[in-house]
Specification:
single chain; 500 residues; alpha+beta; 16-stranded antiparallel β-barrel; elongated
Length: 500
């Protein structure tokens, strides 16, 4: 741009030309014209007389790189220490204003082109800000999240046992059978103080204990894990979990608590068969004696890296209702596990030593020594091929008529069965041959020396993201109660689950 074109734009707006007379020598028009007509430099390094130590070095660099409106002299110098006339200042500022105007025009064109999209984004941002403000105004804690699950079960079971002396059956006559409608509610408060730790407090209540599904009446007595109360467990709210978990470095996690369960302190669980299954036997990855889910005061630690993990934990039993049905209460359990979890499969080998505080049949302190090997696999895409969970448990005790015992299970689950979001599942297995009234593995109690093959079939309708309805059928061979001999147990139920 020629000098006088520049002078027509900038001086009036910037007030750089004062109404003061000037001589031709003062104006130095030739110098100004020569300065303004030079090619603009593209890098401050083109000036031989400008150094990084100069006080205006950064400002000059920004003008060159961001706006490209600085020119030098023919000899490659900037002459930053030389006095500048008002005309030279006007020329320099006008050149920079031209570049700023160009950028502004480009932005205006872009804003006009994407006007609708920008308006939509602005509306979404405004909506998100309003929702965030509402959540912040109504949240009860900045560090705690509440998760809840409520389950209602309508169903029944029968095993043809003599129930004349069992006050918990709720029925009269010789047939230990009943249709019942029960509930289980769990409220978990998960608190984090650092973003990596976890303090879990869970409240729980239910009324399964005195139904056909609880208190030792059938093998289903712990299928709903009523470990929240050592008493009857009927309509009483209790603390079901209270433990703290925190990382030690990047690969180690430690856990301790006044009420913590064995599986809370394991780096991985070696089964993907649903934990809310119908028959209790299928809750323990095929190794009920090893994965006893003992609950009480305890501590544990695990190491996990690149899928591989090692876990060890100790739990002192509080002799809750879930264990007292087995004739004795565990004094403590010690469990060690080594496992590997890949993208869609996993396997674990575990060992549990259980010491019992009472109930020795031979005048010695009873114990159980158990090992388990469990694994799972699931297809990468849902289809006709189901996920598979399987496990086997083995061990011995100084109290049972059958010193060496074993257990096993196989569970299949089809995701998106018949309809996206729904699931179909079935399982087959046994908890072993153990003597009723002596220390046993978790799960089914049987008449002495008899097998106890069990089977279940269920289908889960996912009504919404938070509501599901699951009808199911089960059959158990030679199951026993605390007051009856072994008989086949069979029944069905409809379970409705709400998650929030």
């Amino acid at each position: 741009m020629k000098l006088f074109k520049q002078l027509l734009v900038a001086p009036a707006a910037l007030g750089l030309l004062a109404p003061v007379a000037a001589t031709a020598a003062e104006l130095n028009l030739d110098g100004v014209n020569k300065y303004a007509s030079e090619e603009q430099v593209t890098s401050i390094s083109q000036f031989s007389d400008v150094k990084p130590t100069d006080w205006a070095y950064q400002a000059l660099s920004n003008l060159i790189e961001r706006y490209g409106c600085v020119a030098g002299y023919p000899d490659g110098t900037y002459k930053g220490a030389r006095a500048m006339t008002r005309f030279e200042a006007a020329a320099l500022l006008n050149a920079c204003l031209d570049r700023v105007t160009e950028v502004t025009d480009e932005l205006k064109k872009l804003m006009a082109e994407f006007e609708k999209e920008l308006a939509i984004l602005k509306g979404r941002v405004d909506g998100l800000e309003a929702k965030v403000g509402e959540l912040e105004a109504n949240q009860f804690s900045t560090t705690t999240k509440l998760k809840g699950i409520a389950t209602m079960v309508l169903g029944g079971a029968t095993n043809g046992a003599n129930a004349a002396n069992n006050s918990n059956t709720g029925v009269n006559g010789n047939d230990l059978s009943e249709v019942t409608f029960n509930y289980d509610v769990r409220l978990s408060f998960d608190t984090s103080f650092t973003g990596k730790d976890l303090l879990r407090t869970r409240l729980r209540s239910g009324n399964f204990a005195n139904s056909i599904f609880g208190n030792g009446n059938t093998t289903l007595n712990t299928a709903f894990q009523e470990d929240y109360n050592a008493g009857s467990g009927v309509d009483m709210v209790g603390i079901d979990r209270l433990f703290y978990q925190f990382p030690i470095g990047k690969t180690v996690t430690a856990t301790f608590g006044a009420k913590v369960r064995q599986d809370d302190m394991m780096a991985m669980w070696p089964s993907i068969y649903p934990a809310d299954t119908i028959v209790d036997l299928f809750t323990y990855a095929g190794a009920g004696g090893t994965y006893s889910l003992n609950l009480g005061g305890g501590a544990g630690i695990w190491y996990k890296k690149d899928g591989f993990s090692l876990s060890a934990n100790f739990v002192s039993n509080e002799v809750s209702s879930e264990n007292s049905t087995q004739g004795v209460g565990e004094g403590y359990t010690f469990t060690a596990q080594a496992g590997y979890a890949g993208t869609n499969w996993g396997v674990a080998l575990a060992y549990t030593y259980a010491d019992f505080s009472a109930g020795g049949a031979f005048g010695v302190s009873p114990y159980l020594s158990n090992g388990g090997l469990s694994a799972y696999w699931q297809p990468s895409v849902a289809g006709w091929v189901p996920s598979i969970s399987a496990g086997v448990g083995f061990g011995n005790s100084n109290q049972t008529a059958v010193d060496n015992n074993y257990s096993w299970m196989v569970g299949l689950q089809w995701a998106d069965a018949f309809m996206k979001g729904n699931a179909l599942g079935m399982a087959l297995g046994t908890s072993g041959q153990l003597q009723n009234g002596a220390p046993t593995t978790r799960g089914i109690v049987t008449k002495d020396g008899e097998s106890n093959l069990a089977y279940e079939l269920w289908y889960k309708f996912q009504v919404t993201d938070n509501i599901s309805v699951t009808p199911g059928f089960f059959w158990i061979e030679n199951s026993a109660t605390a007051l009856s001999s072994g008989n086949d147990t069979y029944g069905g139920l409809v379970k409705t689950t709400f998650k929030f």
